[in-house]
Specification:
The protein has 416 residues and is α+β, with helices and mostly antiparallel strands. The chain has three domains: 101 residues, LysM domain (Membrane-bound Lytic Murein Transglycosylase D, Chain A, Roll); 103 residues, Sandwich (Immunoglobulin-like), CATH 2.60.40; 121 residues, Nuclear Transport Factor 2, Chain: A. It is built from twelve helices and 20 strands. The strands form six sheets. The chain has a six-stranded mixed beta sheet with strand order 15-14-20-19-18-16. A hairpin with a 5-residue loop joins β9 and β10. α9 packs antiparallel against α10. It starts with a helix and ends in an 11-residue tail after the last strand. About 14% of the residues have low confidence.
Length: 416
């Protein structure tokens, strides 16, 4: 009988040790992500709630703008951006999620680039802004109570009934003050930018407005009327009345300079329809992409290395297809081009090829890459290809790097 108890105790201990070992193994298991077509380091980091720089450091990536389809990336633990990632569950809406975290629903939509606040799906990952907007909601009850509190001190001043006949004259003076309020003319007034002003990304918009929950919406439109920027604006002032607002709106910088428009509107609390709208025409400073492409084409044809250096970003990246690349200063990059790639070759650019489409299923480009140019005739045999990468650097188009493809690695077809 005692031997049976001893065996049972020994078996229990063994099972416990096996369970601890399995738990420790699971705790040490790391997350490995395989890159799929269309993914970038930024989109992968957004999915796991980890910054792109942390993933690049964990995988020792020399160039964070290049990840390859099929590449295996180790995802480091923890959130580096200090953000909360919320996974949408059944029955939740953007409004209920915003209320849960004390964030305005329009701010939450803009932060996650959601165009339609009524369209979110189960399993969607939402980034919660670090700056809470709770300060707006709590101020609303005290503001409505203050007018009730102020009469009480005056009620205690019943000891001054004699001066009350003289009170009508001071109270008669405020009416001339009311006409200076802009809200009597327009519900929304835009102070800045003014008409015809040239704006750069991001643009700061100021003015007066009134809106539901002390919120207005500010948008930036390009020359075709398309919306390229959107942000909520918090109105400072008595609840339900017109007040001042200041908001900085980031927008997608167009390829070339063009006319645009700033719009500010308030929405109906019943159905979200626009109640009041004001706008002003502006000039949008673009990337000047066409100018850069023309200069780059001319410099490649003539092998004008001084002109090429003037078009380069610092640092400049030379990537190699299906391999890692180099990150160089412009002077070093020019020397590499002179000796190994452009110097012995006869490179030409083809602007008829949709180079980004050619690379779509093969290479994932970073969000700062605004344009890709296909070029051929590189190298000693004059039969290598290069994809010239144009990026947005400080609101201007710059030649930020190139992806060099040796002839024996070409697995695509183009008609230059």
């Amino acid at each position: 009988m005692h031997s049976n108890y001893r065996r049972l105790a020994l078996l229990t201990i063994l099972l416990f040790l096996m369970l601890c070992t399995a738990t420790a193994a699971l705790a040490q298991t790391e997350i490995v992500h395989t890159v799929r077509p269309g993914e970038t380091l930024h989109s992968i980091g957004r999915f796991y709630g980890v910054s792109p720089s942390a993933i690049a450091a964990a995988n020792r990536l020399a160039n964070p703008n290049f990840v390859f389809v099929g590449q295996r990336l180790v995802i480091p633990d923890g959130f580096t951006g200090g953000e909360i990632i919320h996974v949408v569950m059944r029955g939740e809406s953007l409004t209920s999620i915003a209320r849960r975290y004390g964030v305005d629903s329009l701010r939450l939509a803009a932060y996650n680039r959601i165009g339609d606040v009524d369209l979110i799906f189960i399993g969607q990952r939402l980034r919660i802004p670090g700056t809470s907007v709770v300060t707006v909601a709590p101020t609303t009850p005290p503001v409505t109570v203050i007018p009730v509190v102020t009469p009480q001190p005056t009620a205690t001043a019943t000891r001054t009934p004699l001066p009350t006949p003289t009170r009508p004259t001071p109270t008669a003076t405020p009416p001339p003050v009311t006409p200076q309020l802009p809200c009597l003319c327009e519900a929304i007034v835009i102070f800045s930018p003014t008409r015809g002003m040239t704006i750069t990304n991001p643009v700061t918009v100021t003015g007066l407005a009134s809106g539901f929950e002390q919120t207005a919406v500010v948008a930036v439109l390009d020359g075709s009327g398309g919306r390229i920027g959107l942000a909520p604006a918090m109105i400072v002032g008595p609840y339900g009345q017109q007040g001042a607002f200041t908001v900085t709106v980031p927008f997608a910088v167009p390829a070339n300079s063009q006319p645009g428009r700033i719009q500010v509107w308030s929405e109906s609390p019943r159905d979200g329809a626009i109640e009041h709208l004001s706008s002003v025409t502006v000039a949008i400073q673009g990337l000047d992409l066409d100018t850069l492409l023309a200069r780059l084409d001319a410099a490649l044809r003539s092998k004008d290395y001084a002109a090429l250096a003037g078009l380069m970003a610092d640092p400049f990246q030379i990537g190699f297809y299906r391999s890692q690349g180099l990150v160089l200063a412009p002077a070093e990059a020019i020397e590499q081009l002179r000796q190994n790639y452009l110097g012995p070759g006869a490179a030409l650019a083809s602007f008829r090829v949709d180079a980004r489409k050619v690379l779509a299923d093969r290479v994932s480009l970073g969000p700062d890459i605004v344009h890709v140019v296909y070029s051929y005739g590189w190298g000693k045999e004059k039969n290598d290809d290069a994809f010239l990468l144009i990026g947005n650097v400080g609101g201007r188009a710059r030649w930020v790097g190139m992806l060099y493809v040796r002839r024996n690695l070409v697995d695509y077809a183009v008609a230059p």
